[in-house]
Amino acid sequence: MSAAADARPTWEDATLPRCSWLKLGNPAYVRYHDEEWCQPHHDDGYLYEMFVLELFQAGLSWETILNKREAFRAAYAGFNVDAVAGWGPAEVEALMQAPGIVHHRRKIEASIGNARVFKAIQQESGSFDAYLWGFVDGAPLRCAPNMTRNEVSDALAADLKRRGVAFAGSVTMFSYLQAAGAVNSHDPGCFCA
């Protein structure tokens, strides 16, 4: 078998069957769908990045946030949870002026407090990965493409709220579980399913 036959298809292949909701005109969105969404992720750095982005997404479209991902990366110290957890009022003001991100003061303030909770969970569980994947017993759940929440996202949202996390309701946490790959919601005909 040739190397080309073994290679995973790329986002540039417009002929691949994909989820019906995907906007094929946005290469960043297609790449995210093909390479990240609903794929199991276990790196705490990636899980923290998605944690920040998904919580900012509340009330906005994921495409909007995804288009601002690089600006968020720059503003949030490369999604360094240790750095963000140590931020205070001066950094809040800087983020309110940071180019290209969502300038929502409550979300910005919450993102710093949420970083502290993320770190506390890492210390308590050994990693955020261990904590998160414990909600699905270590294996991705297959969920219908039209679902927006389930008992796992309910439980995760409730636990995070108890710990002081803001902007983490069940629908947002369902999206987060998809971003982490703990939930797979690809359309049955999608090549990523």
Q: Total domains, how many?
A: 1
Question: Ranges with pLDDT <50 over ≥5 residues?
Answer: 1-6
The CATH class, by name, is: Mainly Alpha
- The average pLDDT value, as a whole number, equals 94
Shape: globular
Q: Could you spell the SSE succession in H and E letters?
A: HHHHHHHHHEHHE
Please bin the fraction of helical residues.
40-55%
* Corresponding CATH architecture: Orthogonal Bundle
Q: Describe the main β-sheet briefly.
A: 2 strands, parallel
Question: DSSP helix count?
Answer: 11
- Cα Rg: 17 Å
- Going by helix content, strand content and strand pairing, the class is mainly alpha
Task: Bin the strand percentage.
Answer: under 5%
By CATH's scheme, which homologous superfamily applies? Hypothetical protein, domain 2
CATH topology: Endonuclease III, domain 1
State the total count of DSSP E strands: 2
Can you offer a commentary on this structure?
This protein has 193 residues and is mainly α. The chain has a single domain (37-184), classed as Hypothetical protein, domain 2 (Endonuclease III, domain 1), CATH 1.10.340. Helices cover 55% and strands 2% of the residues. The protein contains 11 helices and 2 strands. Helix 3 (44-57) runs antiparallel to helix 8 and helix 8 crosses helix 9. The model is unreliable at 1-6 (pLDDT under 50).
Write a brief caption for the model:
It is built from 11 helices and 2 strands.
